[in-house]
Batch of 4 targets.
Target 1
Amino acid sequence: MKITVDFEECLKDSPRFRATIEEVEGDVCELESKLDKLVKLCIGMIDAGKAYNAANKQFVNGIRELAQQSTKDEVIESSLTKFAESLQEMINYHTILFDQAQRSIKTQLQTFVKDDLRKFKEAKKQFDKVTEDKEAALIKNAQAPRNKQHEVEEATNILTATRKCFRHIVLDYVLQINVLQSKRRSEILKSMLSFMYAHLTFFHQGYDLFSELQPLMKQLGGQLDQLVVDAAKEKRDMELRHSTIQQKDFSNDDSKLEYNVDADNGIAMEGYLFKRASNAFKTWNRRWFSIQNNQLVYQKKFKDNPTVVVEDLRLCTVKHCEDIERRFCFEVVSPTKSCMMQADSEKLRQAWIKAVQNSIATAFRDKGDDSGKLDRKSSTSTGSLDSSGEPKERSLKGESALQKVLAIPGNACCCDCGQPDPRWASINLGITLCIQCSGIHRSLGVHFSKVRSLTLDTWEPELLKLMCELGNGVINQIYEARREELGARKPQPGDPRQEVEAYIKAKYVHRRFVRRPSDEELQNKVVTLSKQEKRLSSSSTEHLPPRPPPPTPKLRPGSNVSGQSGHGLEARRDSLFCPDELDSLFSYFDTSSKLRSIKSADSGIQNSADGSREMLATTPSSNNATESPPMPATLPPPSPYKEVVFYEPKEYSSGLQLYWASCARSLPDMAEALAHGAEVNWVNTEDDKRTPLIMAVHGGSLVTCEFLLQNAANVNQQDAQGRGPLHHATMLGHTGQVCLFLKRGANQNAVDIDEKTPLTIAVEAANADIVTLLRLAKMNEEMREAEGPYSQSGQYNTNSPTEMQYRKCMQEFISLQLDETE
């Protein structure tokens, strides 16, 4: 420790000591003023910070109120709520920072000034006093006369006592000075370092907070760009509509009322009318009337429940009323009561009278048609494709999907935390989740987990089947195999989100609990799956859809179809479409001048523009399914398919396990291979560069293909022969898989090394269903170009009638194969 003032020097009381003391005293005085100023500035900063926090809290409350007001906009509400929570956390961090500033700067430095500097001042007072006493004693001793011995002795004694006292006090004073000079450094550095660490903690907490918020902000940023484009488009549309409407003639508002029995909202006509009350005063009130569901109703406010005037329009009549003072009145009379109403003009009165009369006629016609409707439910394709019939509902939503998925063992609780009654699912993992875990899964990204609601979303049959094939029990056996061995604690319901999120990331992202198989175990697994595929191939006849009997094509064992047996044609018709349905279907798409019509005959269909449907003329219809089907004039060439044979690979890997598990239709083994790091688009270079998705086509399972597609399999990846999954599904006659691949964006124009497209292969094989589907897909693409329903963003309008009809057709075939082959 550095000594500011020397103790030996202070006893001499030399000029050097006095100069040092004077310098120290001036420094301490200046230090006191600087510290007082710093404390006052700190107090001002803390007060300003508290005012800032108070204003910031009001701002955050304003954000929350805005979020509550935006409950109808889920994106705005959730985003603002999340932002408000984050800003509130920052306010809390600011509060902690200001509290730390008060403790480290204000309190600590004030204590140093009040205690240590006060002791220094008291010691200085004693030193000054004893210095004066010493000076007086020295003067008195010097002035004592030589001849007065008693005065000399007295002066000598006083000087001795004063010097002794001076030595004690000056030593204490020097000690106080040295201690103060040493302590000032530690106190100042201690307080400032504490304050800076408080800032470090503050900014670290803010960084961590906004790091968690950054993915949401990036997502909203992407959505914002699209919202800006949409807003600009809507603005232009509104301006155009405003200009168009402004140019209309509004001198007569009566023209705005029209009767429309086919209105989307079921309201045939609506508008304001005066209604005479049934009370004694016969008052007239203006009400909003409408004709809907064969009833005449009115309401005062939009939120009010409509009041029914006439429950069944078939039981009432309408007539003019000219015997009252008011103009433009008419009366609707039912067996139990009558209602007097008044329009605003004669034209409006006539419009309402005509609307009521038309509604009466429509009600009688609809009632009469109910008994005369033809039952078309016997034809599967009619139910799904004919726009005039009732569509067969294949997709499940709400409680139906929920009940089916939760019935799987282990699915009644959340896969990750055990929360009962989950309402969410990960469709690529095949597990059920609670709402908290679903949010964490969604934050992982779709390459790890694709989250869907079990109650709010619509579930396609293939997705529902996939969920039922896996489940929480199967997946946890894979992803939590080593959890107990590693001593990892599984989260419980109610645990903090941070703990649950850390566990889920360790489980699915880092896969820390997955048990890696040994080389021997992997080899046994692959060999077992290959043997299982052989067993499936030997019995695949009953799993594949029937096809017309080919001459003698050399197909692989798994491609044998029921059309080769005598009883196959008796089980069901060869084509899912009968001629009259094809006529309706193709005429539906024939709305563009670019497309030439395709007509169906009694037992066949004429050629299209490119002649690719000429082979359909040889396929039987459902009307003569029991007769012998006519054979094509020329036999199709033998299939180039070769049998899938297991061979001893050079190296066993998780990709090879996925390869054979896909062919063996074993979804648990496929999920295990993916958990072990298998590449979903793994290429078997020793087997024509085939992929797991192509082997899933060989296995004949549509759900296996769906599982691979949900896990980012490439639907257009080709083998060494240039054939993609769509080529293989066409060659095998797997209609449902063809639909699935078309639905997932497969390129039907891709050619193999023989320059053959899937449509060419289907025509050569005389497979009517697949040819029909491929032609529908091709015509749907042509319709997109012809109708031009593209938005400025370049995305196709999936709600157009053509697209909806096409997708309905695709989904029906997928559902049929699920019903018949899985």
Target 2
Amino acid sequence: MTPIATPGKIIAVHLNYPSRAAQRGRTPAQPSYFLKPASSLAPTGATLERPAGTELLAFEGEIAIVIGDPARRVSPADGWRHVASVTAANDFGLYDLRAADKGSNVRSKGGDGFTPIGPALIPADGLGEGDWRVRTWVNGELVQSDTSDTLLFPFGRLVADLSQLMTLETGDVILTGTPAGSSVVLPGDVVEVEVDAPDAPGSPSTGRLVTTITQGEAAFGDFGSAPAVDDLQRVEAWGSEAALAQAVAAGRASAAGQASAAGQASAAGGPAASASPAASAPAFELTDELRAAIDGVAVATLSVALRKRGYHDVFIEGVSANHPGDRLVGRAKTLRFIPFRPDLFADHGGGFNAQKLAFDTVEPGEVIVIEARGERGTGTVGDVLALRAQVRGAAGIVTDGGVRDFDAVAGFEIPVFSQGPHPSVLGRRHVPWEVDVTIACGGAAVQPGDVIVGDGDGVIVIPPHLVEEVVAEAVAQEAEEAWVAEQVAGGASVDGLFPMNAAWRARFEAERAAGDGGQGDERA
């Protein structure tokens, strides 16, 4: 059972959160809407079939408002007073049928079970329209979180706008839009949505609205428009080209989808137009053994190996560790800031912005790498977010900007490499813009998944396809240099030893083959 009687109307808003508008690359001047049938309603705990022959079923966690007193030609200031209660909803959509609907969303969002709602209603009385939060989890991982005080079009304005042409009747439901983070789900996935008012007395909550995705077996008939996807639909369904590429790497999207995304970017002159040398190589994995090998070599040695291969600008300039002697090894999770502008900060700085998303979704062993354009005149991370990264198991944080709450952050275990302390908050110089994209940090290009290594000499970036050969060479080089150091400590002159001439090298090779590692003396 849904928590409300079957509504006469279910009206959904297309774009309403700045985070989602930024993801889509367009910000509407006015709200636009579509209708969903009452037959699409489903309760918590229901299953939802992904129809046979389709691939792009996407979730959209939303705040649903339920009309109390009927509204007709009300003002935006009065609109909120016509809302009786608030609950959670999931506006599922099938991108495979968007083209067939020609913008109406009748089939792409109107299927049976495509509008789970509930499980409980929260009375709106005594609460404001900006007091609400919506969060979504997929398989237990938080993927969406935003608040109603960031909306482009507040709830009262939606009620007023719709009431200009139609009477909103008691029990009608308005789905108020989804924040960034909507993406594709697969059979077996479990999606949960919760709406709450965390700062209100008692922190009222709807509880979690749970939907389990299953695989449908009934094929579409040979009449009507058939499901179809293209490059744009794949990218929009997954949320971005980077998200699609990550899904392919994780085995959650087909290689055809990755090829389509790459083709789209290439046609547009985008990043995929110039494939990396490893574009067709198997997916790279930073194994525990490889991580341990990297951890045993210096950044300076890795730098030499990379320069031999033509990689001269992979050092992140100007950053140092908050703990002397710190090392970090991990794969990059990227975060990009753009220069501060009041209107852009108003749209992107609040709620579950890109900065919070990066720190709340970093995976164990990843390094958060922040592009701050070398601007050290404000903080780019503070104590709360650094602690969140540590709790989630991040391997470290690298920023070419400043660190706020520097002493507190230095008290944590997590290594943080930065340009030093600064007390100012983010909005002084930066707007949090996007995550999981190619960035420039300290003059070095960094892509999601690059291997990041830091020590007392600084931080270096290693493209994944070079890691194994560069590390193998660096390990060998460090063994050689350690042997040379033993000879120098024993009194040998560096002349002919560093670098080794033929005689010294022959001795080194002989001792290595014999497993000796003797101390040597100053005679060649």
Target 3
Amino acid sequence: MISNSKYVDFKINIVKRSGNEETFNINKLVKSLLNSGVDYENIDEILSEIYGKVYNGMSTDDLKSILYTTLKEYDKKTGKSYSKKYMSENCLKIRTSEKEFEPFNKEKIVKALIQEAGADLKTAERIATEVESEVKNLNVTYLTAPMIREIVNTKLIEHGLEEFRHKHTRLGIPVYDIVKLIERGSKDNANLMHNPESIHKWVADETMKQFALLNVFPKYIADSHMRGDIHLHDLEYAAVRTVCCQHDLRNFFKYGLKVDGTGRHTSVSKPAKHPDVALQHAAKVLSAAQCEMSGGQSIDEFNIWIAPYMRGLEYSEVRQLMQLFIYEMNQIYAARGGQVVFSSINLELEVPEYLKGKDAIKAGQVVGAYEEYDYEVKMIAEALVDVLMDGDAYGKPFLFPNVIFKLRENAFKDENKDLLVKIHELSAKWGLPYFINMFADYQHGNTNAMGCRTRLSGEWGNSIEESSLRTGNMQWYTINLPRIAYEADGDDGRLFEILDEKLAIAKQALEIKHEISKRRLYHDNVLPFLTQEFDGEQYYRYDSTTKTFGFVGLNELLKYHVGSELHESPEALAFGVKVISHIRKYADDLKKETGLRWTVTQTPAESTAGRFAKFDHKYYPEETKSVVNGNLNDLSSIYYTNSSHVRVNADVTLGEKVGIEEKFHELCNGGHIGHFWNAEAYADPEVLMDITKKMTKTDIGFWTYTKNLSICEKCSLAMSGLKDNCTGCGSDHIEKFSRITGYLQNVSNWNKAKQQELLDRKSTLPGRRI
């Protein structure tokens, strides 16, 4: 049938399943190809392809696999026809990741081990041969590709090839865990609802966490996290995202908005001409950046940038516009996993010194200087407060954005009194506002914050703006302080040695994340919104981002190591300051050594405070049982005190709490917060304002008055405190709200450890004196 001379000497033997050999017959092959639907004119081309792959002594199964693969590449329909007609029903099939059945082919294992794991040819062939021998002895009709991969990985482990196994492994999540997520959700992040988007996020997160621990971080760092020595936050984003950013709206108001950063994938807007469009653009900036970052998004100097758009408007119009913005931020489910953007806005009571003389931008034009808009700045702040005071249509508080007021030297002038009273009325009703104390000596020109407490101050770069705008936290990783105390066993010198060991691990993890982030930004170009340019300069000031050491459980370290808690003795407090000063010096020395912005933060620890406590109770049961907080009969409820805070139910006055916690705020230059619980009662706004004024004479840099709230789902009545029944209609369908670490959220979404902390909290307001 074939007369082409190039096949005349094509003589090889094929080993049949019986072990017998037979001579390969070209004409027999041609007949099967024609029967499979191959056009005669294409036969020679396909034979040439096959000729380069067959070899003497190959099995009939291997030959059929080669034929099937070649025909599938030629034409999928023809490949399937061949498979159906000629591939033995008894031949072991593999269900591939492409949802197709193929015969087992050990050469695919060889190729995968070389390409994916970096194995040499000899090793790959040895492993593949052993796997082939095992799977052919299995009494099964087919295997899946993941099952084959696991058999290969088992062989790699048997041969001591652990590094190859790490690279070759398949990531995923057990079926049972997916069922649990579908049916019950997860409470690691209280801002996530249980919905289809969050289920997809949780499943994807688990895969990316596994990837980070296997592929991003070396084994000793991954093991340190897995043991609970340190906590690698945002593991699911370690390979692709930095954390947060303080945004500057001027570039978008001057040049327009490309939410994809390029303009190639989405519509492009010209600079906003009208105030409602400007506010929508502000919301879209936060949403777009959230798609590329793992943490919160904030607009610093929000009412400064917006002020030119409000010129000439009546107060009622400004209030309506602020309502538009607040609803945008609370109703657009644009963030990861079906949630609203974790957002903050920093507000001024007047135009700050560093922005005086700077061009005010509106609709792509310069419209004077910002200090000319002091009236509008105050009006925006007042309108926002009034909108937040009203709550939503059901009478619930607005949860986002976190609203942060900066208190500068002129804050308490008579002209600001009415506005300050309104702000404190908002504190009394909902507990929403945060305050930045710009009076403290360690503040520099401009300081901003987010509800999660990430802090930027103006002393870093070549200017205040470079230091505090269009940049943020690259990443923070957290040290488990109580465990260091357990391991030191009362030895001061050993305690600081172990602390340095853990800081070195966290430092190396942060350096890895730093290099990965640079690659994603500048090589892989997967963060186009952040890297878009204005006037030849990248929007995101990555060189100014903070690389941050966090810590949890200083109070418990002291309780075990010193024998008393932060509030119980001057010796404990002094030693606590020594510990955090040591971490700060470590960060400052790194800053000098590397030129990077190393800082220290009070970790929010929404889940980490409970995670560390549970790990430590497992490994150090005797040491922890007199130290941890919560109920030891329910280990999911135990927790450590966040960062350097006083224990939440410590018997201290507000003044004593401030006197202790202020000592750590300057040291924690990457982020700090003071939580002052106004748990049940309605505090007098004038009293709260008096406390605020006194607070500016302390070193507390950032604080809020937290209020517990209950909202009746039946009649929408808002009540102070955590109620089980409505005081109006008696219903027991109650939504309970409080602040978890750094944002107000429904208590039902909290994890068990944070719910226990909430129950333990003791009010420091009102009736306490500074």
Target 4
Amino acid sequence: MNIEFKNLMIKLLLLSLIFHLPFNLFAQKPVINVDFNKEIAPMKPVWSWFGYDEPNYTYMKDGKKLLSQLAAIGENPVYVRTHSLLVTGDGIPDLKWGSTNAYTEDVNGNPIYNFKIIDKIFDSYVSRGMKPLVQIGFMPEALSTHPQPYKHHWKPGDPYKDIITGWAYPPKDYNKWRSLIYEWAKHSIERYGKKEVESWYWEVWNEPNGDYWKGTQEEFFKLYDYAADGLKQALPTAKIGGPNIAGTRGKIAMEWLNNFIEHCTNGTNYATGEKGAPLEAILFHAKGSPKLVDGFVKMNMAPQLNDIYTGFKIAASYPNTKNLPVIIGESDPEGCAACGMATNPENAYRNGTAYSSYTAAVFARKYMLADLTKVNFLGAVSWSFEFENQPWFFGFRDLATNGVEKPVLNVFRMFGLMNGMRVAVQANRMYDLSEMLKSSVSGEQSDIGAIATKSEKSAAIMTWNYHDNDKKSDTETLTLTLNNLPSKKAVMSIFLIDSKNSNSYEVWKAMGSPNKPTKTQIATLKKSGKLKCVQKSTVEIIDGKVSLPVDLERQAVALVKLDW
């Protein structure tokens, strides 16, 4: 750095302090170059996986509406994972609670199977072309070794441990547990057909290394073995995996994942006495860690990315798992979907564009981590659905509120417009993967990056202006240059999510944040929740090249799509 330039930078810094200007006013202008001749890998729809705690929301009014909206995104089937499919109860949902009453016993202890509520749930998926990621859990009351208390009465603000009741314990009879899974799988084949059920993935329990499992590690392996044996007796070609651990980067979690793989590879099967257990997929969880700082939310995707990196590396380290499908069973900015911003102010990001821009930026890095570790990355479950009959924009981690889509859902709609091959992107303001793993986007400048795809007749570029600090900042103009396009002319569509576009939350706030919007207001909110195309035009492609400016607010996401 020469002395003149150094002195200039010092003067600019002093000016920014004197006049209270942001120093990034003088930051490097964002430039992104996309080379459509440099292919990386197929654009797998790893984003098309969703999940939630409350299974009975599935077939309720707004639940069915959201399922239809998700099913309409992209060309590939959407997979759905939900808790509590075997929990005993009346089928009435509550926060972090659901039930199906699939298993009870008569006075003599004989099993009674009733799959009517599970059928309503799975019918809702299959009729829309969706696939269940079937969670085998939790423990029916009649099978639990510690059945009472059973139903919890947790509400936001209560200690999280209060949800852990009789459903979290091992079975008192493992043979009955195996028979339950056998009968469930057999019933599913009879209802949906063998070919359909073969396309599902099954997994046992949820976060057994945490509060969700009140048994030992070996008891969990036994639970898994008996469940897998029951499933395979009904359908030998069924696909099952696990263990869906929490906090994957932690020492204890890594021990769980390694020990689980070792058990499935070389251990003695508790159900059959043979060597090993079925394992057709590796599953684990990954979460970020936002916090409230000086009145604003500060996101942090480093913990989530390190969970993913750890899980990918472990899966890649074993000969028998390195090619297995890897599914991130829950992949989110933090851990409790039902903890609204009233009780957890650090979750205030959920209604607005911080959630949508975070989602765009973090999925780009998930693809990078899969490329780096060479794993068979199949999907990442966004643990985000909807909460029926709850206050408007309460700050739950959901995709829609009272049937109105939130900004984050529009990012998934953007992903649905991307297909074919991922291609090379060079972005001078996109944080390196190593820096993201270390400290997320905590520097002075925001993360302005992109992910791009090409297919035979189209190209798509998603770009964002993301920062961990959910604070307003100046709009920046990105210079986006597309190289080696295989056409001379194309129809260009630009879709945008920011404070004025594809954003029902800002419209709701402008209405005065009504607790009971009128019919007219609801119609306006529904319209504002759709993904908005802000520009559509025909562009000339000269020597395979197009260059255009894209204005991005802090936390904005844009998709530029070319069709020819």
